[in-house]
Amino acid sequence: xxxxxxxxxxxxxxxxxxxxxxxxxxxxxxxxxxxxxxxxxxxxxxxxxxxxxxxxxxxxxxxxxxxxxxxxxxxxxxxxxxxxxxxxxxxxxxxxxxxxxxxxxxxxxxxxxxxxxxxxxxxxxxxxxxxxxxxxxxxxxxxxxxxxxxxxxxxxxxxxxxxxxxxxxxxxxxxxxxxxxxxxxxxxxxxxxxxxxxxxxxxxxxxxxxxxxxxxxxxxxxxxxxxxxxxxxxxxxxxxxxxxxxxxxxxxxxxxxxxxxxxxxxxxxxxxxxxxxxxxxxxxxxxxxxxxx
Length: 293
Known about the structure:
Elements: H1 2-27, E1 32-33, E2 46-48, E3 51-56, E4 62-68, E5 70-73, E6 77-89, E7 92-104, E8 109-120, E9 125-134, E10 139-149, E11 153-163, E12 168-180, E13 183-188, E14 192-195, E15 200-210, E16 215-225, E17 232-245, E18 248-258, E19 263-267, E20 271-273, H2 277-292
Parallel strand pairs: 1-3
Antiparallel strand pairs: 2-5, 3-4, 4-6, 5-6, 6-7, 7-8, 8-9, 9-10, 10-11, 11-12, 12-13, 12-14, 13-15, 14-15, 15-16, 16-17, 17-18, 18-19, 18-20
């Protein structure tokens, strides 16, 4: 009887140990860290609840790191959730976030999905729904709608290719730029190329520049910004230029717009059409005839 009791106690301890081990493994799955474990050695077919992936330059300096809540590991890709990543380059630290993503284990490219946001340490933000991040080259690109916010302007467009620092960017189509100093709106069919380091932007195809007093239409426009304040300094327009102020319209081959001074300079045989002058001329003729009589 005593022997049976001992066997029962041993069996109970074995069952308890087995149960605790399984519960612990389910609640404390291992973290994924490619800084420690090379990507080609990551086991396929597993899920980890907390992951950390890092990439290094050829000189061994950490170029980027990515953290999240869960990862499903496959032979060629890793499906990620609740992504929070930091990238270092162009002397700017960049943070990238997304609800989901797919990491390519061979190329280090990451496809970010749902509520994607980039924030630079300079305060620039980019929001979109899908974004491909080439971590090795420091480039991001997308075909979806993009919203970029800076202190001096807000930009909306469809499709974008940019350095992840957002200092050099191209937007493909359906573009609108809201400038804050001085207030103005520039739209174009695209593409739009922006170089923040050189303080210049190139607008292409069906460009319109509108402020509270003036509306300019042209084929192409180059906008120059003041380096320190990043305020709009000058817009140079080329091709089928027209400028409308009130009811008056002026046509020219080229135009230089100086918003700070509130003036324009026209080149290439400008033609001015003043609305309503026909009636004024007729009244002048009638008055002149009556005086002569």
